[in-house]
Amino acid sequence: MTQSDLQTAFDFIIQDDTLIYGVLKDLHVPRQRSNFADLYQIGVIAFVEAYDHFPGNIEVETHRFMVYAYQAVKWAIMMTFRKDNNHDKRIGFVNRTNDDDSVMDYLDQVADPYCNPEEAAICNDLFERLYQVCTPREKRFLVLRYFYNASLKEIAVDLNITRRTANNIKFKVQEKFLEILTE
User: Fold this and answer.
1) What sign has the CA pseudo-torsion 99, 90, 35, 47?
2) Rounded to whole angstroms, how far apart are CA atoms 168 and 15?
3) N or C: which end of the chain has fewer CB within 10 A?
4) What value does the mean pLDDT of the chain take?
């Protein structure tokens, strides 16, 4: 990409940055979020890269390019979320002060580095049994929630579902876990 192409791409997005704000809104990122400006800049960079890599003529296929750029920006921001979650090495649900996941609290003992090894073995066994009875979507929910500490909103984005559907999946997983505990 030449310097003039780079400048053209930046000018194009700076004149009308509603595409980036639209992606952030679509991903439920509020302006009050501490890293909102960083995510916006990631969107700008992704837009410029999309401008450079677009396989057609942007002047002729403007609408097709905007769809292409929108998806590129969305993927770049979602990759940032995933990288952020992978850098968080804590295991288990944490900071659940007002969440109603009390049934799953038993599994949280594994997250405690000072937990009793016998309790950890029991928790690992329970998690594995729960994982085996879950549907593929429930398994993905369980892994995202338990190992990556993802919120319901982040899980909904990852699974491309509404937050309400993510909440329904959570209740189904809790019911299955309760059945395993009462066997």
Assistant:
1) negative
2) 41
3) C
4) 76
